[in-house]
Write a structure and sequence with these properties.
The chain has 557 residues and is α/β, with parallel strands linked by helices. Helices cover 33% and strands 20% of the residues. An 8-stranded parallel sheet has the order 11-10-8-4-1-14-13-12. Helix 9 packs parallel to helix 13. The radius of gyration is 27 Å and the shape is elongated.
Length: 557
C-alpha cells in the first residue's frame, strides 16, 4: 500500500505564506529562530586615508542588498561620526566603518534596506540590524549623545514604518512570532549596542519624556556575544571547541546567543600581515559549515548543547559567509528546522490494527485502562479516545494540550491517526522537547505496552521547494518517516546542496535544504535591479521637485 501524499494530517503549512523562506518560521517567536548574518556588515570597498586596502580591512564581497540576496538576515553594522576620510573634523556624518576605515553613509545603507523590504517578493522577510560598535568623535558623554541624536532620526526616517517596538511584544513579555511581524509589517528588529544604549539611558534620566529605552531594544539586555579577544590568536580548532562548549562554560546570564563564527588577524604576528581577511575566512568557513557533511557543523552541536543549558542561538555571524561551499544561510535553515521541531511542533502517525486488545502488563498502559467502556474495534473510538490512547504512550509526563489529533483515516485493515505534538505556548527553553516525546511514544509501542498500535512513524511534512526549483515527494512514503524527497532546479539553474533528503525518525529531514543558482554560480539577482531602479526613481523625483520649485519661484518673481 502506498503512503504517498498521505501526510495531510500534519498541521498544514502554506508555502505561499512563508516567513524568511519557510512557512514553519511564521509560527515561531522571534527569540526561537536563528538568523544568519554578517559581522562587520557592509565592510567592503572600505577606504583608509582615502586609499583602498581591501586585503586588510574588507570582510565581505557584498553590500547589504547583495547579502540579503544571498539569504542573510542579520547585520552587525559598525558606525562612526566621521568625515569621508575617517577623520573627526570637517563634514561629520554617520558612516559605516571599521576602525577609521570608512564605507558608505548610514543613510545610503538604510535606504537600500528600506527599498529591498518594499520589493513585492520580499514582503514576508524579517531582518535584524545591530549597532553594536559605535565610534563618536571622542569618548566624552557629550559626543556620545551627539552621535546618538544624529543616528536616531536617520533610522526613524528610513525604517520607522517597519521597526518592531517594545510595545509590540505580547503581554506576557515574550516575543511576537515572525508571522505576526510579517502581517503587521513590523519586519525589522533594530538592536542598539552598549555605547548607544547606555547613552539612551543617560538621556532618559535627564528627561524621562524622551523614553528612548521604552521605544527601542538594547542588544545586551537579552543577547550575549561569544566574541573574545582570543579570536585574534586562536586556531580554527580552538574556535570550534570554544563555540561548542560556550553555553556550558559561559558565565553570561542572557538566554539568547550571538554566535561569532569567525577569526581575526589581530595578533597573529608578521605572518598575519601577509594574509588577507578572506584568506583567513577560507580556513575558518569550510570547517564551521562542515562542507562535506553540513549536518555535522559545530554550529549544530553548539545548538544542541545550548538547548541543554536552556539557551538559544539567535544569530550566527561570519566573514565572507557566502563565498565558501555550503553557505551560512543553508546551515541556518537546517538549524531552524531543528528549532521548529523543538519550539513549534512535530508530526506523527499511529498505525492501528482493525481491533484493539489489552496487554497484560503491570503498568497503566493497557488498552482497557486507557479507554472508557469495552471498545474493541478502532472505528468505534471517538477522537477523544484516540487522544487518550496516544497521550498514555508518553507515560504520564505529557500535558494533554500538547498533543492534538489532526485527522483519522480508516481502511479495511487498519486505522491511521495523524497527530501533532506542540511546544508549550510560552516556548519555554526547559520544557520537554517535542521530538523526545515522540521518541518516548515510539519506544512504548516497540515494547508492546499499548495494545492494537502497530507502529508510530514521524511525519516530517512538506520541506518546500527551493526558489526556481522543484521538490518531489517519495512515491511510496510521501513525507513520512523513511521518505526520500528529491529536489531539482528549473532549466538554466544549478542545484547547490543536497538533491535528496530523507525524513528521519525525529521528524527532521537529513541534509540541508538546497538552493538553485544561475548556471555560473549566481543567485537570480532581480531584486538588486529593483532596488537600483527604485533608488534612481527617487533621485529623478527629487530633481523634478527641485525643478518645479525653481520654476515656481521664477514665476513668482
Amino acid at each position: 500500500m502506498s503512503w504517498a501524499r498521505e501526510s495531510q494530517g500534519y498541521k498544514q503549512l502554506d508555502a505561499a505564506e512563508a516567513c524568511n523562506g519557510s512557512p514553519k518560521l511564521c509560527h515561531l517567536p522571534l527569540n526561537r529562530v536563528t538568523l544568519a548574518g554578517h559581522h562587520n556588515a557592509e565592510a567592503y570597498h572600505l577606504m583608509y586615508n582615502n586609499v583602498r586596502v581591501a586585503c586588510a580591512i574588507d570582510y565581505h564581497k557584498h553590500d547589504i542588498v547583495g547579502a540579503l540576496q544571498k539569504g542573510l538576515r542579520f547585520f552587525d553594522l559598525d558606525t562612526g561620526m566621521m568625515n569621508a576620510s575617517g577623520g573627526s573634523s570637517g563634514d561629520l556624518i554617520i558612516r559605516n566603518c571599521h576602525g577609521r576605515a570608512v564605507g558608505r553613509t548610514l543613510v545610503e545603507i538604510l535606504r537600500d534596506l528600506r527599498l529591498w523590504l518594499q520589493v513585492p517578493t520580499n514582503r514576508r522577510e524579517v531582518v535584524s540590524l545591530s549597532f553594536n560598535e559605535a565610534i563618536p568623535v571622542d569618548n566624552s558623554q557629550q559626543q556620545k549623545e551627539a552621535m546618538l541624536l544624529a543616528m536616531l532620526p536617520l533610522v526613524e526616517e528610513q525604517l520607522s514604518n517597519y521597526m518592531l517596538r517594545p510595545g509590540d511584544r505580547p503581554l506576557d513579555g515574550g516575543w511576537p512570532t515572525l508571522g505576526w511581524m510579517v502581517e503587521s509589517n513590523k519586519r525589522v528588529l533594530v538592536l542598539w549596542g552598549s555605547v548607544l544604549w547606555s547613552t539612551m539611558n543617560e538621556l532618559d534620566q535627564k528627561d524621562p519624556a524622551r523614553n528612548f529605552r521604552g521605544r527601542h531594544f538594547g542588544l545586551e539586555d537579552d543577547w550575549s556575544s561569544t566574541w573574545r579577544g582570543k579570536y585574534g590568536t586562536w586556531s580554527v580548532e580552538e574556535l570550534k571547541g570554544y563555540l561548542v562548549t560556550y553555553c556550558e562554560k559561559s558565565a553570561s546570564k542572557q538566554q539568547l546567543i550571538v554566535a561569532e563564527a569567525y577569526l581575526a588577524n589581530l595578533n597573529r604576528g608578521q605572518a598575519a600581515q601577509q594574509r588577507c581577511n578572506d584568506g583567513l575566512a577560507a580556513e575558518v568557513n569550510p570547517e564551521m559549515l562542515a562542507d562535506d557533511h553540513p549536518a555535522e557543523s559545530p554550529l549544530l552541536e553548539m545548538q544542541r548543547r545550548c538547548w541543554a543549558k536552556q539557551r538559544h542561538i539567535s544569530f550566527v555571524v561570519m566573514d565572507f559567509s557566502e563565498q565558501y561551499g555550503n553557505h551560512l544561510e543553508s546551515v541556518a535553515f537546517y538549524m531552524n528546522e531543528q528549532n521548529f521541531v523543538r519550539y513549534g511542533w512535530v508530526g506523527g502517525v499511529a498505525v492501528l490494527g482493525k481491533t484493539l486488545f489489552g496487554r497484560i502488563t503491570s503498568g497503566p498502559l493497557n488498552t482497557a485502562s486507557v479507554l472508557d467502556g469495552d471498545r474493541q474495534r478502532t472505528e468505534e473510538l471517538s477522537e477523544d479516545e484516540f487522544h487518550r490512547l496516544l497521550v498514555a504512550l508518553a507515560d504520564g509526563g505529557l500535558d494533554e494540550e500538547r498533543l492534538s489529533i489532526d485527522s483519522v483515516q480508516h481502511s479495511t485493515t487498519r486505522t491511521k491517526v495523524f497527530f501533532s505534538i506542540s511546544a508549550p505556548k510560552d516556548h519555554d527553553l526547559d520544557s520537554w522537547p517535542n521530538q523526545d516525546i515522540l521518541a518516548k511514544m515510539k519506544a512504548q509501542v516497540v515494547e508492546g505496552l499499548q495494545g492494537g498500535i502497530h507502529v508510530i512513524l514521524s511525519d516530517c511534512g512538506d520541506p518546500g521547494h527551493p526558489k526556481d526549483g522543484l521538490r518531489e515527494p517519495d512515491p511510496t512514503w510521501g513525507f513520512l518517516e523513511g521518505a526520500v524527497v528529491s529536489f531539482s532546479c528549473q532549466f538554466g539553474f544549478e542545484l547547490q546542496g543536497d538533491s535528496r533528503r530523507s525524513c528521519g525518525p525525529d521528524g527532521i529531514y537529513t541534509g540541508v535544504q538546497p538552493t538553485c543558482w544561475l548556471e555560473g554560480g549566481q543567485l537570480w539577482d532581480h531584486v538588486d535591479v529593483w532596488v537600483k531602479v527604485m533608488a534612481g526613481l527617487s533621485i529623478v523625483a527629487l530633481i523634478a521637485c527641485c525643478a518645479l520649485t525653481v520654476h515656481a519661484l521664477r514665476g513668482n518673481g
